[in-house]
Amino acid sequence: MVKDIKKIFEQPTFASKGGLKEFNDEQRAKGWESIGKEAPESTQFNVLQNDVERGVKYLYGQIRETIRSTSPNYIPDELKQTDLREAIEGITKAQTAQAIQQAKNDAAAANKNAESRLAKAANLSDISDKRQARENLGLGKLALANDYPEASLGHKGIVQLSSATDSDSETLAATPKAVKAIADTLSSGRLLNIQSFTRSGIYTPTPGTRKIRVKCWGAGGGGAGRSTHGASISGAGGGFVEGFYSLPTNILKVLVGSGGNGVDAGIDAAGGNGGASYITGLSITANGGEGGGVSGNVPKGGTVSYPATGTIIAVNGQNGMGGVNSESGGIGGASFSSTGGMPHISDIGGDNGGFPGGGGAGASFAGEPRSSGAGASGLVIIEEYS
């Protein structure tokens, strides 16, 4: 039908000398005025009109039959030219209705099929495992571990995970937990940094520090002075503590003790006491040694206090010492890893205590009075480990 309609309207004709001819391309482009020297007669127009009317009647007849077959409820008694648009709309509506109905039918069939599969899957009596349920639903088979071989050095396959860190298996794979544990073990104990404190301050851990090794010296005491012929008492050494501890979460304040003062030549006076060194938050204290007295007992070395866990060594400072003879002052008390100051009877005064924590020498008076030695200051060293 469509081909006939196009043929009618795509091949218009015109009247020429009582006959019908098709327009050629040149005539279509130029128009009526160039068809001939004279204008067409009315009878020629009538022939063209009749031809067009025959085509239109044929078209209407085709449309009417189409309406009859697709939309029985829409058949006008007389098909007029104004009915053409309505007829086409009627055909479109009928085709749309058919498409909608077909879609509904397809959806209903799909739902029925799905309900049948679900009902079958829900019937546990015919399902032995998950694989059968997937097959009943049309989802295909479920792959199980049994379907694949275990991996080995020579074959591909399933690899089992393990968090063990001491396994010698060649077919197990390490989990992130196991890798982290090994990495932590390998990196643990690595020296990151060393911080030394010769004066008080706040300890700021280096990033990554988990353990600290602490060495703490108390200051040494100063030796006593002498104004008359003879010798005086030296100062005592400071105490020492060393330990390996877990890094506390609280802030660590470091206080470093100052050495005790010595005494100028020709003055009868006691030497100054050494100051204590300690670290708050760790309960570590290394007390300073006592200064030498003008008379009486020798001064005591610095005592220590420390945690019960993690401490490696804790040593009190060496006591001070009396005069070596009637003219030479006493030797200063030693601290751990350092010595006390030595006395002199010639042209110089007593030596200061060795750093850190050594006690100062006592003053001497032989031909001329000599000064006593000062005690050495304390020290705190913190080694940082991962």
UniProtKB/TrEMBL annotation:
One of its GO terms (biological process) is symbiont entry into host cell. Signal peptide: none annotated. Its main location: virion. Keywords: Coiled coil, Host-virus interaction. The keyword Coiled coil applies. InterPro entries: Gly_rich_dom, Phage_lambda_Stf-r2, Phage_Tail_Fiber_Structural. It holds the Pfam family Phage_fiber_2. Residues 359-378 are annotated as: Disordered. It is found in: Virion. It comes from the Bacteria. Residues 202-383 form the Glycine-rich domain. Residues 93-124 form a coiled coil. This is Phage tail fibre repeat protein. It comes from Sodalis glossinidius (strain morsitans).
